[in-house]
Design a protein that fits this description.
The structure holds 2 protein chains of 2 kinds.
Chain A lengths: L1 H5 L3 H22 L10 H26 L7 H17 L2 H26 L4 H23 L19 E2 L8 E2 L2 E2 L3 H8 L4 H9 L5 E2 H19 L1 H11 L1 H6 L4 H28 L10 H11 L4 H19 L5 H23 L3 H20 L7 H17 L20
Antiparallel strand pairs in A: 1-4, 2-3
Chain B lengths: L1 H30 L12 E2 L5 E2 L28 E5 L10 H16 L2 E5 L7 H11 L2 E4 L10 H5 L4 E5 L4 E2 L6 E2 L4 E6 L1 H15 L4 E9 L4 H15 L4 E9 L9 H13 L4 E5 L3 H16 L4 E6 L14 E7 L1 H14 L5 E5 L6 E3 L10 H13 L13
Parallel strand pairs in B: 3-4, 3-5, 5-6, 6-9, 9-15, 10-11, 10-12, 12-13, 13-14
Antiparallel strand pairs in B: 1-2, 7-8, 14-16
Helix pairs in contact in B: 2-9, 5-6, 5-10, 7-8
Classes of the chains: A mainly alpha, B alpha/beta.
């Protein structure tokens, strides 16, 4: 069955996976004592989307660098540069300038990484860590001169900035089209209150109502990145730099140039992610606001098997528990998510068992049983669980998925022209 | 080769843009007063009361409140350096650290002391930073309970230096009975629950939906729970049926909850979405996200919801755009405590051990900036009178409130 599923076209596979996910959510919330509706509400998907976008951008950033063979552990620092540059750009030219300058700010970090690793052959990890240390210091230094003294600004914070305009999609969610209020298709189906169907429409509506143009543009980048990497000459050359640079060089591809391109694009995307955090999530630049999302983006890249679609799924998987937990004022959503973990671990156990991986199956099954006991014995989840959930998800996913992953062969190796690796 | 060139041109263009923007900024920075200057030579006050400025004028930031009784306090701090050691993020946090900075700035203004500022970059640096300050200053302020961990080693190594630490009693609870760590370390604690009671009263009076929210920074330290308890008790004193939704951003030992405006915004949006129309954030920087959320929610839904600030008068620090959403702030007068710690040091009256700043001592209060609560100050002041007289005892543990 799994083999037949894999043969389906990509859009069908993703739709089926999404439908399955929502089906599980519908069951989980229906089973919660007293019943819940918010796990599949538009607020839940809206929050998931908001909290996924920075991870998605960081993951896509990592993708371009690592496809070119450069490990980019400096994504975190490049996002920090993006938060600052985004706010700076906003104050000097509005939201679109914020996007542009945020992108350029990250790209500068990427360029630095490329100069260090490609031209000067510095170890990729060392250079990345250096950028992560350099970036926060640099932005504080720059803030003293750019933000301190302005209304609401200081050396650690910029004045208030705003995101790109929010839009409500016409027809799907009843947005306005040239002043005409279109029918709200998803909203009316949600109103019928049919199990599963209304859950799907409510969840989809979160993608269409009051959503930032920034978010929509980011989502559009996923197919764009897939097309660029797999279908274009640019992508082929980028990938040869990450898979077999010697072969590429022998065919006349300038590997150094490919690595530069990949790493600068990587920094630019991470910078966009930073700008998103400052503009859309927070409403100002604030020191330390990236909070490890660059590293979570790297985890998303690995979980996504160095593919854009995989990175998207991973970003949603990490963003969903985070957004839901934050909006969980009475602890019941998080409690329901415990059951979701049980279902996920049980599925892993079944699949591992059928693949004859006994250790994995026992491990996952045991953990599932443990979470089930926890779920049954409690009524609300403890305070600390919401914050731990995204990281627990990352751990569980990476533990069980890592054996099936394939990274670019020459990823992280220092390439010197004319020498074998 | 052509591609290389275009890339280089792009970079050069970017460099030019940055340089051009930079020039603009240099101009504005010079025009604005640099309130964060760390070293200033004091103005000297002559006996006639005229101020002769011999050096750059001493500037106290606009948002600093007056210190009660400061004008009568006389001390000579010339040549004395105060080692002002901030909590993480330091001056400019628009909250707790800025309040401490104000106290020191007023001491510089009135007594002419110098200020040596250090902001720790991580938890491990705290003891080192205190030691560094102690080597250069006779009076060292540590802003935040996290400095307590550095004691008693630091105070024993520096017996001639006075230490004043905020938000901790500086008592060693391991000893029986609990005793001060050293005879040169003062702990400055505040009755946050009493101040929170006042803004709880304001929230209940201003709420039209009968539902209000509380965002706590970090649970499990026992500190933020005091804010929650006071807030709920205050609100229930006005409207016993009021519904209060509470959420903590993170749990001890994860301190991210004090520095996550993005999470604060999401939580605030959820609370407003569920019908709360006044939300109080006792969560340091996270609170500024709440005000951003109040603005976003109000504009998207054509209503007006409120946020309540904490520690400093946040109306004065959030910036013009968010000011219309700051109903009031629970003010913890860290500035008063810091100012008088310096004053006591200069006059030789420095005492060790806990020193409590409650409502009666002017250590906590509420702000009226913006004028949004002018119509209800009578009721809040009545609550103050009840607390000061002992008629109302404010709880410190939210689980004890029925």
């Amino acid at each position: 069955m799994l083999r037949r599923f894999a043969a389906l076209p990509a859009w069908a596979r993703y739709s089926a996976a999404a439908a399955l996910g929502i089906l599980v959510l519908s069951f989980v919330q229906a089973l919660e004592p007293g019943g819940l509706e918010r796990l599949t509400s538009e607020n839940a998907s809206g929050a998931m989307l908001r909290w996924s976008v920075p991870i998605l951008l960081a993951g896509l950033g990592g993708l371009f660098a690592e496809r070119a063979g450069v490990v980019n552990i400096g994504l975190e620092g490049m996002m920090v540069l993006g938060t600052w540059a985004g706010a700076y750009g906003y104050l000097h030219g509005g939201p679109w300038m914020a996007v542009l300058v945020g992108l350029l700010g990250g790209a500068v970090g990427g360029l630095l990484h490329a100069i260090a690793t490609v031209t000067f052959k510095v170890d990729h990890i060392v250079s990345g860590v250096a950028i992560n240390i350099l970036a926060p210091g640099l932005v504080r230094f720059l803030s003293q001169y750019a933000f301190a003294g302005a209304s609401g600004g200081s050396i650690t914070q910029s004045p208030v900035i705003h995101g790109l305009p929010l839009v409500t999609v016409p027809f799907l969610a009843g947005g306005d089209l040239f002043g005409w209020k279109t029918p709200d298709i998803l909203g009316s189906i949600t109103g019928w209150n049919i199990f599963f169907l209304s859950d799907i429409t409510a969840f989809m509506r979160g993608f269409a109502v009051n959503v930032s143009i920034f978010t929509l543009l980011t989502l559009a980048m996923v197919p764009a990145a897939a097309w660029l990497i797999w279908k274009t000459r640019f992508g082929l050359r980028l990938r040869i730099a990450g898979e077999h640079p010697v072969a590429g060089e022998s065919l006349g591809v300038n590997i150094y140039w490919q690595k530069y391109k990949g790493t600068v694009i990587s920094g630019a995307l991470a910078g966009l992610g930073g700008a998103f955090i400052a503009m859309e999530l927070t409403g100002f630049y604030r020191e330390g606001q990236v909070q490890g999302r660059g590293f979570i983006g790297l985890a998303a890249l690995i979980f996504g098997n160095w593919r854009p679609g995989g990175v998207l799924i991973a970003a949603f998987l990490f963003g969903y528990p985070f957004g839901t937990a934050l909006r969980d004022l009475d602890g019941r959503s998080t409690h329901a998510l415990l059951l979701l973990i049980v279902v996920g671990l049980a599925a892993i156990a079944v699949v591992s068992f059928r693949r004859a991986k006994r250790v994995d199956a026992i491990l996952a099954g045991g953990m599932a049983a443990g979470f089930l006991v926890w779920y049954l014995l409690t009524e609300t989840a403890p305070d600390w669980l919401p914050n731990a959930l995204p990281f627990a998800t990352v751990l569980i996913v990476l533990v069980f998925a890592s054996q099936r992953l394939r990274m670019p062969v020459a990823d992280g190796r220092i390439y010197v022209r004319g020498e074998e690796l | 080769m052509r591609k290389h060139l275009s890339f280089a041109v792009l970079l050069a263009a970017f460099a030019l843009v940055v340089a051009a923007c930079g020039d603009d900024d240099a101009a504005t920075t010079t025009a604005a007063p640099t309130t964060a200057a760390t070293t200033t030579t004091a103005a000297t006050t002559t006996s006639a009361g005229e101020t002769t400025t011999t050096a750059p004028a001493v500037v106290v930031p606009d948002f600093c409140l007056e210190i009660p009784g400061a004008a009568e306090a006389v001390a000579d701090g010339t040549g004395v350096t105060v080692g002002l050691t901030f909590d993480l993020l330091g001056r400019g946090d628009q909250s707790f650290n800025d309040a401490a900075a104000c106290g020191a700035d007023w001491a510089r203004f009135y007594f002419g002391v110098g200020i040596n500022e250090i902001t720790p970059t991580d938890e491990a640096a705290r003891a080192t930073d205190l030691q560094l300050q102690a080597e250069n200053s006779p009076i060292v302020i540590g802003n935040g309970f996290s400095f307590e961990a550095a004691f008693p080693a630091v105070c024993e190594n520096n017996p001639d230096v006075n230490f004043a630490i905020t938000d901790t009693s500086m008592l060693n609870f391991g000893a029986t009975p609990p005793a001060p760590y050293c005879d040169n370390a003062r702990g400055m604690v505040f009755a946050e629950h009493e101040g929170s009671y006042l803004v709880g009263v304001a929230a209940a009076l201003k709420s039209e939906t009968g539902k209000i929210g509380f965002i706590g920074g970090v649970s499990g330290i026992g500190l933020i729970e005091k804010f929650e308890a006071g807030f709920i008790a205050g609100a229930k004193s006005i409207n016993p049926d009021i519904e209060v939704v509470s959420e903590y951003v993170s749990a001890f030992p994860d301190f991210a909850g004090f520095a996550s405006p993005d999470r604060g915004k999401e939580i605030a949006l959820a609370m407003y979405g569920e019908g709360a129309d006044v939300v109080y954030a006792a969560a340091g920087l996270t609170g500024s996200g709440m005000f951003a959320g109040a603005k976003e929610y109000s504009e998207a839904n054509d209503v007006h919801v409120w946020g309540i600030g904490v520690d400093s008068d946040q109306y004065l620090t959030v910036g013009e755009e968010l000011q219309p959403y700051v109903l009031t702030s629970m003010i913890k007068r860290v500035d008063v405590a810091v100012f008088y710690a310096i004053y006591d040091h200069l006059t030789g009256n420095f005492t060790a051990g806990p020193s409590t700043y409650d409502l009666a001592a002017g250590g906590v209060g509420y702000s009226t900036s913006g004028g949004f609560i002018d119509d209800i100050t009578d009721q809040i002041d009545a609550a103050i009178a009840q607390i000061v007289s002992g008629e109302v005892v404010v709880p410190t543990d939210p689980t004890t409130i029925p």
